[in-house]
Design brief:
Helix content of chain A: over 70%
Number of domains of chain A: 1
Largest sheet of chain B: 6 strands, mixed
CATH topology of the largest domain in chain B: Rossmann fold
Low-confidence stretches of chain A: none
Strand content of chain A: under 5%
Number of strands of chain A: 0
Order of helices and strands of chain B: EEEHEHEHHHEHEHEEHEHEEHEH
Structural class of chain A: mainly alpha
Distance between the termini of chain B: 36 Å
Oligomer: heterodimer
Largest sheet of chain A: none
CATH class of the largest domain in chain B: Alpha Beta
Radius of gyration of chain A: 20 Å
Shape of chain A: elongated
Mean pLDDT of chain B: 92
Distance between the termini of chain A: 36 Å
Helix content of chain B: 25-40%
Order of helices and strands of chain A: HHHHHHHHH
Number of helices of chain B: 11
Chain lengths: ~230, ~300
């Protein structure tokens, strides 16, 4: 385990947890703020609607927090990027990268789950809808898997499109969440409580995508990283 | 005296769609500093990147320390210190991040020595309060940090890609001293390969020179021997036409001319009233590169 964390530190210098803590602090601040405003304005439509939207959005965004670290690891694999030559020149560079990828994936999943759990607790404390958390949990392995598949894409524009796609998935998920809870329709949370099987199925499919992406990326890092890249 | 080779390159080629390096045959002597000299696009960086395992070669052999030829071998990489020309480390790295990362990457990295060298080179060290990351530092300071990191390792070969290009003249002078110290401490077993455009400033640091043009080696040898092999010819413009055939390359104006010639032609040049003198490395480089350019 230690050598995987060490490999990640080789690429970052230190494991970057600061962004996640800042995100959590911001979420906590806004949850308290909106809960307070909701109370003061006696369930005003404007505040209610805003709170509903934000609570739906927070889940998928929380899930994405760890993925940013993973994207940062893949960004150091391009020869145009400062640091590439250093990373390529260290002993066992391919093995170090593959371990770094595994550690970044683990960090992505663990921090994603931790962020979702903490966000869930905060939303429950103010009795807000937690459907976004379920969508975030479903989205997390799929997004991480896609990240792994696209990490070594040579065309950065394609990679950017994929990233936009992942972020759009977050938006769609949030929109879906808000839409589903309108006017007496059951919320995602209620649907989950009634029958969790479809959700488990989606989660399982997500985990397969995640595992396949991880295997692909690790093999690529060990065998093909930098083989055809130009340094001039 | 027989001199061992620190790196032997045989038939090395690297093919890109618009550029081909090689075939190169170069022997880098052990215990000395070798300068790679050439115009932009000559292939110096590509050669250095191949030597350090950053880029894969298309064909040919590279033998390091007379025994190893697989740059993928971690034990070999431990023995080679490498520093690229610009932005070697990620721009988000501070001195502390570099220390942490290098300590993980290399067994021979001495963190304390790195901090000392950073202070000596007058850049942020990991002991600096609120050290700045690479992005917030000038090119010169980035290079100083990079050099501190590479000198903080116990290596047998240093490969530096244009280490002097972003440094001020004073620091370039200090770098030359530092390179000499590195070689002296190695008891004849340590070697340096560096590329440079600041030939005049780095002349004191080099013992051997490899001149490259468009991916090919056009000349190589010990600098002292090259200075015996070539001369700088100087004369009045009226003698230029007579001397022209003996010059490899040269410049002339309405009153005078000068140019590079083979030392074996010095006597013939003297007969037509042209003086010859020992070239500096800078003059030698310009003369040879000009000759290569004119004969492409």
């Amino acid at each position: 385990m230690k050598k995987y964390i060490q490999s990640l530190r080789l690429f970052f210098g230190r494991v970057p947890l600061r962004q996640m803590l800042i995100f959590l602090a911001v979420v906590a601040f806004f949850v308290v703020l909106f809960a307070g405003l909701d109370l003061i304005t006696s369930n005003g439509d404007f505040i209610n609607g805003m709170f509903e939207g934000i609570s739906a959005m927070i889940g998928p965004v929380a899930a994405m927090m760890g993925i940013m670290q993973l994207i940062a690891v893949y960004n150091s694999c391009y020869h145009e990027v400062p640091g590439y030559k250093y990373f390529r020149s260290v002993p066992d560079s391919g093995v170090q990268l593959s371990r770094g990828i595994i550690a970044a994936n683990a960090l992505s999943i663990i921090s994603g789950i931790a962020m979702l759990a903490l966000t869930f607790v905060m939303l429950r404390m103010v009795n807000a809808d937690v459907s976004g958390i379920i969508l975030g949990a479903l989205l997390l392995p799929v997004a991480t898997g896609i990240c792994n598949f696209t990490g070594f894409l040579k065309r950065r524009s394609t990679k950017m499109l994929v990233l936009i796609g992942i972020l759009s998935m977050t938006g769609f998920a949030a929109g879906f969440c808000v839409g589903a809870s309108e006017d007496g329709e059951p919320t995602i949370m209620e649907m989950f409580m009634q029958n969790c099987l479809p959700f488990v199925g989606i989660l399982a499919a997500g985990l397969v995508i995640f595992a396949a992406g991880l295997i692909f990326a690790v093999n690529y890092a060990k065998k093909k990283w930098g083989v055809d890249e130009c340094a001039e | 005296m027989e001199i061992n080779n620190c790196v032997s390159i045989k038939g090395l080629t690297k093919k890109y769609s618009k550029f081909t390096l090689g075939e190169l045959d170069i022997n880098i002597p052990e215990g000395m500093a070798t300068a790679l000299i050439g115009a932009n696009g000559a292939g110096k960086t590509t050669l250095i990147d191949i030597l350090c395992g950053v880029t894969h070669k298309t064909a040919g052999d590279v033998v390091y320390f007379n025994e190893k030829n697989d740059i993928g071998d971690p034990a070999l990489r431990e023995r080679i210190g490498y520093c690229a020309s610009n932005a070697f480390f990620p721009l988000t790295f501070t001195a502390k991040d570099i220390a942490v990362s290098m300590e993980i990457a290399y067994k021979s990295f001495d963190r304390k020595k790195f901090a000392e060298l950073c202070e000596k080179f007058e850049v942020d060290s990991e002991n600096t309060r609120k050290p700045r990351n690479m992005m917030k530092q000038s090119d010169g300071n980035r290079m100083r940090t990079c050099l501190a990191s590479v000198f903080a390792r116990d290596t047998d070969l240093l490969v530096l890609d244009e280490p002097g290009s972003s440094l001020d003249p004073l620091m370039r002078d200090r770098l030359c001293d530092r390179m000499r110290e590195y070689l002296d401490d190695g008891d004849g077993k340590r070697s340096i390969i560096f590329s440079t455009h600041n030939i005049a400033d780095m002349e004191n640091a080099a013992d051997y020179a490899v001149f490259m043009d468009r991916g090919k080696v056009i000349e190589q040898g010990f600098i002292e021997e090259l200075k015996e092999k070539y001369v700088i010819a100087r004369g009045d413009a009226e003698n230029y036409d007579k001397a022209k055939s003996l010059l490899l390359s040269g410049n002339h104006n309405r009153t005078t001319f000068d140019g590079l010639a083979l030392a074996e032609n010095a006597e013939k040049l003297a007969e037509i009233g042209v003086e010859s003198e020992i070239p500096t490395l800078q003059q030698l480089s310009i003369g040879l590169l000009k000759y290569a350019e004119e004969h492409r």
